[in-house]
Design brief:
- There is one protein chain.
- This protein is 9% helix and 41% strand.
- By secondary structure, the protein is mostly beta strands.
- It is elongated.
- The strands form two sheets. A three-stranded antiparallel β-sheet has the order 3-4-5, with no helix packed on it. Strands 1-2 form a two-stranded antiparallel ribbon.
- The mean pLDDT is 87.
- It has one domain.
Length: 64
């Protein structure tokens, strides 16, 4: 799986998300949830359709 980069609010820097997994939000969009490797604060990133395809996730979602 490709390394997912997210923004840590506590460190105020972009970090690779550690111990992450794909979750589905209420609006049926996919996101990646995990921890910051430096401070272990929770990190969250909404996945684009391109990122979903590169991870091998096939989900039919409208582009609206």
């Amino acid at each position: 799986m490709a390394e997912i980069i997210g923004y840590c609010v506590k460190c105020k820097a972009k970090q690779a998300i550690q111990e992450g997994n794909v979750v589905t939000m209420k609006n049926e969009r996919l996101a990646y949830k995990g921890k910051c490797p430096t401070c272990e604060t929770g990190m969250f990133r909404i996945l684009s359709h391109v990122e979903q395809e590169s991870m091998g996730i096939k989900k039919d979602a409208p582009l609206a």
